Amino acid sequence: MIGRSYPNLMVARYAPLARGTRGGVDGVEGVGERERKGVRPLLQQVGEARRMYSPEWFSTFSATIPPVVIDREVEALAGLFPVAKYRRLLDVGCGIGRVAGPLAALGYVVTGIDVNPTALHEARRVAPGPVYVALDQRHVGLPGWRFDAAFVLWNSIGFISRDVDEATLGGLHSVIRPSGLLALDMYHPAWLAQHGDPPSPQQGDKTATVGRWLQGSRLHNRIEYPSGTVDQIDFDVYAPAELVAVVERLGYKLDRTMVWWDPSIAPSQDHARYQVLFRRT
Fold first, then answer.
1. How far apart are CA 262 and CA 260, in angstroms?
2. Which of 2, 74, 171, 238 could be disulfide-bonded to 141 (CB atoms 3.0-4.6 Å)?
């Protein structure tokens, strides 16, 4: 429906933030004001998802992930996606570019998308190399680009509904080349059900207070910072078998499951996160 109403969007190039544009609908080259007015309500539907993550979240959590964790993720992705075969990568929910930047330094051509323009401007500053695009992930198929592989880390999906997740995964199917790969890194709901509030991270000489609870298949996180800012971050989580069924229905084939990127460890309630690799059919 979007393509029929606004055909220019299907061939327009989303202007990267590296050029100093604002990204999103106002950063689309070749799209007139009428199209912008028509598309803007679609982007407003994800306003809540964008507001979930304040600048303090990125400085308190994303920017303080231990280097050993980032190095392991980069090493694992480089192993799954040999650069000679999978050079063009898409990082969905790239945030401040903590993985996209190192992958670009290894010779990959990386595009990172995120709904939060503030995070993307920080990514441009601290992790140069990739092209960063402000884009609602469910519209990932609109620019008409092509990738050899895509990845979604730290459950950066599920913010609105399962229908929207399927729109995102379907859009990824349209931009990943045949036989290309999709890697998903997800929280395990059985592990979450057994564990209460996570440790509260330090912010300077004060502590951010973190509350976490699982309600059905939706994980709720309330974070209060020393400044008084509060983030309410909510997203769906999937059991491994459920995730595989959804993704395979959309035109992918399961390649392997992993824990901490190790295929010899099966996902279970003993591990907070698990990873699944799919091949696009």
1. 5
2. 171
